[in-house]
């Protein structure tokens, strides 16, 4: 990584590309110089308990954090890749400190944000700031889906967070979809096609 010599390096990542329900959530974070974050890794490798335990430490070591959500409706309109990108761009623009260098997890953003950007494949394993962003995005999204579980208890969002588990798909077959389901994702798309 050639991010040396920059004052404010931002890491950005998103959570929620794969689920059948709920938003995609992105986080952008600028860590303090020399931030020490033992235990911080790709959010998918950590248990929910471990992610929640790391949030306080990450916030202590951050100069700026910004979170952005893109709704299921927008995901259906523009597609999930574009929505994830829009969420990242929005999160970066929402930082209270303007970064002078951006590290993004496998996403090219430079044209849209006008800031030098490095797209890192498996970035959450190679950059501490991307890993920290991935944890905040995941914890934020999980919390949102727990709140949605209270509104729509028949789907079990508390357990699967909207991902296409067998129980979730069965619940959709039984109850139909709710306002936070993504209508362009399979098997929902086919199910809706069969209802017309």
From TrEMBL:
The biological process GO terms on file are: DNA replication, removal of RNA primer; mismatch repair
Record's Pfam families?
A: RNase_HII
Q: Where in the cell is it found?
A: Cytoplasm
CDD domains annotated for this entry?
RNase_HII_bacteria_HII_like
The cofactor binding remark recorded in the entry reads: Manganese or magnesium. Binds 1 divalent metal ion per monomer in the absence of substrate. May bind a second metal ion after substrate binding.
Q: Which family does it belong to?
A: Belongs to the RNase HII family.
* Descriptive protein name: Ribonuclease HII
Provide the organism lineage as a comma list.
Bacteria, Bacillati, Mycoplasmatota, Mollicutes, Acholeplasmatales
């Amino acid at each position: 990584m050639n991010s040396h010599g920059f004052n404010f390096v931002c890491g950005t990542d998103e959570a929620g590309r794969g689920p059948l329900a709920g938003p995609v959530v992105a986080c952008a974070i600028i860590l303090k110089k020399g931030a020490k974050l033992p235990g911080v890794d790709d959010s998918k490798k950590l248990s929910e308990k471990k992610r929640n335990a790391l949030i306080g430490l990450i916030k202590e070591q951050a100069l700026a954090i910004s979170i952005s959500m893109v709704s299921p409706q927008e995901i259906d309109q523009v597609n999930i890749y574009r929505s994830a990108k829009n969420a990242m761009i929005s999160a970066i623009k929402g930082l209270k400190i303007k970064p002078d260098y951006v590290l993004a997890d496998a996403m090219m953003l430079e044209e849209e944000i006008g800031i030098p950007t490095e797209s890192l494949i498996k970035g959450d394993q190679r950059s501490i700031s991307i890993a920290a962003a991935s944890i905040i995005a995941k914890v934020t999204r999980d919390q949102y889906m727990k709140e949605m579980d209270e509104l729509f208890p028949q789907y079990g969002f508390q357990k699967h967070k909207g991902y296409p588990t067998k129980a979730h798909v069965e619940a959709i077959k039984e109850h139909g979809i709710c306002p936070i389901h993504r209508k362009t994702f399979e098997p929902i798309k086919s199910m809706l096609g069969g209802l017309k």
